[in-house]
Amino acid sequence: MASTDEELVARSMGGDLDSFNQLVLRWERPIYALAYRVIGREEDARDVAQETFLRAFRALAGFKGQAKFSSWLYRITLNLCRDWIRRERRAPVAQAPDGVDLIELASAAEPSESVEDLVSRRELGRAVAKAMATLPEEQRTAIVLKEYHGLTFQEIADLLDCPLSTVKTRLYQGLSVLRKQLELAGVESIYAPSARKDRGNV
Amino acid sequence: MCNHERLLDYLYDELPAADRAAFERHLQECPPCRTELAELGGTRLALASWAPPDSELGFRIVRNEAPAPKQARWAFRPAWGLAAAAVLVLAAAAAISNLEVRYDSTGLAVRTGWGRGAAPSSIAERDAQPAAVPVAVSSEDWTERLKLLDARLQQIEQRSNERGVRAATLPEPDDPPARMSDADLLKAVRKIIAESEAKQQRELALRVTQMVRDFDATRAGDLARIEQGLRQIQGLTDAELVRHRDDIYRLWRITQQR
């Protein structure tokens, strides 16, 4: 049976490097995805993810278990993303590089999905990335944490050190802007109300 | 549009069961809320299509067991700067006190130059010392010798003057040979001193040249050592990179197998 995060953290604190590397293996993809969706650049997101684990490893003695290990990692990542945005003084890149997300989508596609669906999904993915890039950082972060990482509103509020109502306002405003942007891009029609039966969370 | 907080709670399934039923009843009676909910649901579906590029990760924390090479590069600098400063100070000192300074791999050597190859004056001959002596002892020695020489010269000059005056007023038959002898001695001593000075100046020039040559040779040696050190560091870094790449590749293979 696989060890829990808490068990691995405890062993890591005792100097077991392998246990920490198991945590890295377990969390590197979500951390990279979080960084990518917040800053929008693959290379930089990878650097941020790597730096997250380095910092976590160095600061492990200071982790008292007051939050979940993953929340602690998220906090480090978001701080690094904020530093990156401040340093670059710009909004994230509007879309993924050509050809890259097609491969990703092909592996994620349902077996029954047709090529047409795949292409329209890819186009929709690009449109979403573009629309997300126009949002203020705090709205984008709230949406990413909720939609792609499944955190509760309370967990997001704790992570971002802000009231619960602020999180909900940011999320609501962000989603409203996204909806308008997607309508302008003409992609909302792909998901007509009748097609909503397969609504998923990731 | 009603309370968006409750709408979001419902949308993300975070509404307690009791409140949920109440909110669903509200939805039946509130078309704007129904529309809002449907649109937000559509937006969430669109969001699900955005995936990050499948980047190769495979991070791993490794213990850094050999941190030495990076520091070694910096270790050169203070030592080199200090040595250069020391040589400059000593070169200036040597120009004043006729020292021989040598800095090489065995360390810093300081030698006095006055005793060696000095003109064979009576005093220099008497006090001739081995060349390698500490600086402080040598300068005391030299001061003492200077004082002796000075005293001797004054003595001779005084005697010569006395006799000169006497000779002018009271020429005596026994005196000329003695007076001649004193004058000759004075002349000889002055000549010896002049020769000694000239010789020492030549030696000083020679030693400065030699010191500059030694300095250059040492610098060239140090530069070669630094270059060799840098090459070693480069080699180590390359080896480490290759190791890291291999590790990442192995890890990737393992993930692929899984």
Oligomer state of the chains in this structure:
heterodimer
Helix content of chain B: over 70%
Cα-to-Cα separation, first versus last residue of chain A: 26 Å
Q: Specify the number of helices of chain B.
A: 7
- Basic shape of chain A: globular
Strand content of chain B: under 5%
Please tell me how large the radius of gyration of chain B is.
Answer: 47 Å
Poorly predicted runs of chain B: 67-80, 112-137, 164-177
Number of contiguous helices of chain A = 9
Q: Give the SSE order of chain B as H and E letters.
A: HHHHEEHHH
Structural write-up:
The complex is a heterodimer of chains A (202) and B (258). With 202 residues, chain A is mostly helical. Chain A has a domain at 1-91: Orthogonal Bundle (Rna Polymerase Sigma Factor, Chain: A). Helices cover 68% and strands 0% of the residues of chain A. Chain A is built from nine helices and no strands. Chain A has helices spanning 5-13, 17-39, 42-58, 69-88, 100-108, 115-133, 137-147, 153-160, 164-184. In chain A, helix 5 packs across helix 6 and helix 6 (115-133) packs across helix 9. In chain B, helix 4 runs antiparallel to helix 7 and helix 6 runs antiparallel to helix 7 (175-257). The interface between A and B is large, with 62 and 34 residues.
Structural key phrases:
heterodimer; A: 202 residues; mainly alpha; Rna Polymerase Sigma Factor, Chain: A; 68% helix; disordered C terminus; B: 258 residues; two-stranded antiparallel sheet; 7 helices
Strand and helix map with partners:
The complex is a heterodimer of chains A (202) and B (258).
Chain A: H1 5-13, H2 17-39, H3 42-58, H4 69-88, H5 100-108, H6 115-133, H7 137-147, H8 153-160, H9 164-184
Chain B: H1 4-11, H2 17-29, H3 31-47, H4 68-97, E1 99-104, E2 107-112, H5 122-127, H6 135-169, H7 175-257
Antiparallel strand pairs in B: 1-2
Helix pairs in contact in B: 4-7, 6-7
